[in-house]
Amino acid sequence: MLIPNMYYADLKDSYLFYHIAQKTNAYLKNHPDKHLYRMGIGDVSLPLCDAVIRALHEAVDDQANKSTFHGYMPECGASFLRETIADYYASKGVTVSADEVFVSSGASDELGDLLDLFDRKNTALVIEPAYPAYVDANVMAGRKMIHVSSGIENGFLPMPDDRLKAEILYICSPNNPTGAVFDKQKLQAWVDFANKNGSVILFDAAYEAFIEDETLPHSIFSLKGAKTCAIEICSLSKTAGFTGTRLGYTVIPKELVRNGMNLNEMWVRNRTTKTNGVSYIIQKGAAAVFTPEGQKQIKDNIQIYKNNARVLMEALDSIGIWYCGGKNAPYIWMKCPNHMGSWEFFDWLLEEIQVVGTPGEGFGACGEGYFRFSTFGSPEDTKEAARRLVALLKTTK
Ligand code: MLT
Question: What is the pTM of this model?
Answer without folding.
Answer: 0.97
